[in-house]
Each structure stands twice: as structure tokens, then as C-alpha cells.
Amino acid sequence: MPLTPELHDYLVAHGSPPDEIQLDLIEETQRLLPEQARMQIAPEQGAFMTILTRIIGVRRAVEVGTFTGYSALCIARGLASDGRLLCCDINEEYAALARRYWQRAGVADRIELRIAPALRTLRALPAEPVFELAFIDADKEGYLDYWAEIVPRIRSGGVILVDNTLSHGRVLADHPDGAAAAIKHFNEQVRTDKRVDLVILPIADGLTLARRR
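Predicted structure:
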């Protein structure tokens, strides 16, 4: 069934809506960063991530690619009362905006943001599985490297979410280029990874959900 604009409006209208803080973050991101605002996840995806985080009972989570902090806010709100989220990003300008909204939402004490290349941050972490949830939403060419570092650090039963895995439909092309080529290669590689069960959900631009066996 094709998701028409009208049907998309309907499903958004009949789910948990973004609150005032989230709406303000969306608006400010679009106003200050009009060219980059498309990197922000969709509100319905954020609602899904909050619910999923609560269902799993996540206490330790990690995010690769934080941008202005919307996805981190959604994950942090779903964490257990003693939960912590580690965010990896390289842009201090985006981070400043994110921190301001995390503070306003009352979740700043749950989030640690490290400004450094994500692979450096991930490789410095303990090698054993300590996380119940991971979210990957950064440079598409780096997805397989992030995956390689994150999967061993996810506990059995934990979940990895990977954004933009439909690449606006360009994964259907025989020879996509750029980010779409990287995503298509990533999808082909991870579908045979015996450490996880996974499905691609048609949320926003495609959201891969993988469960660690």
C-alpha cells in the first residue's frame, strides 16, 4: 500500500504528537540550519524510539550522529530512571543547540555528548556488551564501521536502530552513487549478519531495527 501524503498526515495525527519543546527544537533547527534541517528525524520516528526505549527498559544507550539533539531527546525520555545515553558527534555548533533543549526538557543529566570522531569514541569503550540500545544516524559511508563497533557492545536482546536505510528509494537503483550506494551496500551486508535478527521498517526514510541474538 503506497503511503500517500494524506495517509502520512493521518498516521502522524493519530500518534503521540511532539510536545512544545520538541516543536520548538524542530522550528529552531529549520530556521537556523535550513540546508541541514532534513537531517533531523521525523516526529513519528521520534515517538517510536521513545516507546521502544521504554518497552526494552533501556539503561545504557549510545547514539552515533546527534545533530541538534532531537533523536537523543526522544531516547533520553524513554530511558529508565537511572539510564544514560552516550552521544557521538563532531559539530560543536549543533551540540550547543542540542544541550540547550536537553536542559529545557530536563534530560541533560542523562546524556553525555562527546565531540570527537565517533569511531574513536566507540573504540575507546569497553569491549564487552554494555548497551541495550544503539542508534546510528551519521555519515552513510561510515555505517558498516559503526556497526562493527556497536554490535559486540549490545547485550543479548538489545536493539540497534539504523536510520535512512531506504535512502529515499534510491536503494532500488542498480548502480546508485554516493550515500545511496553506501546504504545499499550496508543493507546487503547486515542482512546476513548471524548475530542479529532484523527488519527494515517503512518509517520516514527507512529505519532498520536489529535485535542482538
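Summary: The first strand starts at residue 60 and ends at 64.
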